[in-house]
Prior knowledge:
Blueprint: E1 24-28, H1 40-45, H2 47-60, H3 64-70, H4 73-76, H5 79-99, E2 106-109, H6 113-120, H7 126-146, E3 150-155, H8 159-169, E4 172-178, E5 181-186, H9 188-200, E6 205-208, H10 221-232, E7 243-244, H11 255-265, H12 272-281, E8 286-290, H13 295-303, E9 308-312, H14 315-324
Parallel strand pairs: 1-2, 1-8, 2-7, 8-9
Antiparallel strand pairs: 3-5, 3-6, 4-5
Helix pairs in contact: 2-5, 3-5, 5-6, 5-7, 6-7, 7-10, 8-9, 10-11
Amino acid sequence: MSAAGFLPPLPFSVKPKGLGMKNWVFLFPGQGSQYVGMGREFHDKYDEVRELFDNANDILKMDIAKLCFEGPEEVLVLTENVQPAITVVNLACLAVLRMHEIYPAATAGHSLGEYSALYAAGVISLEDTLKLVQHRGRFMQEAAIVEPGGMAAIMDLEEEKIREICTLAGAQVANINCVEQVIITGPEVDVNSAAMMCEKAGAKKCVRLNVSGPWHSRCMEYAREKFEPILQACVFSDPRIPVVNNVDAEILKTGSKAQDKLNRQICNPVLWRQSMERLIAGGFTNFVEAGPKKVLRGLMRRIDRNAKVLNVEDDASLATFLQAN
């Protein structure tokens, strides 16, 4: 089986056998969900997952299994390493779900996770997916050296007020995760100033994040410019199933739109709450986070407590999910 053709998704017009009455939206996590040991259980149990890791090793020219399973953590967390590592684990979880005849009815991914979502929807090949996230991580790391900065989580303050404060302080909104949590980004002095202003405005809590750069800010313009020709060299097909993108929380209609939105995503905020609301408004009620940790599962519970949301990252979570299906 070729790397580019690894487990291609079914055409959207085909109702996947085994899906039953539930239409599952697959959610894919991004940077920050990593941990040493992620993906090991599926790798050791399934030949198909080992094949995926082997293909990834060849494409990335790195020992991705050793990085995921052994770290060390200080090496795993480097942006240029963690982006391909998380993506491979996301796709391993996707592969396991497919082996159990569970297919996505729609997809979405948080920041980096959007590449996994596009792969699951048949928009980009495995080879292009992994090459893109590898270059993205490298260019973002380089950009953070050129224009360093940081990020902070603002808890329980109105989004409009946070945007107003960011404009005054010179910071930017990076992620709208849920009503209670907005992430801000930018140069250190601007983020610190904005965080202090948010506290004075009544935010319940302002927490500096342990990140190595000001992601989703104008400081990433260097990365966006370097990344654009890499994107242009890849093949983007039209989505076979609905994919909600981060930039405007709309469903992607064409491959070219997906390509453009990935380029814009580097410097623009992730509209996660709006993306989930878009899916819920479209009638989707069942969600599964396919990838390490349960970050998106937790956010969904804050966005809509009526939505059914599970996660799959290891044998135990898979067993729970299969029982629920």
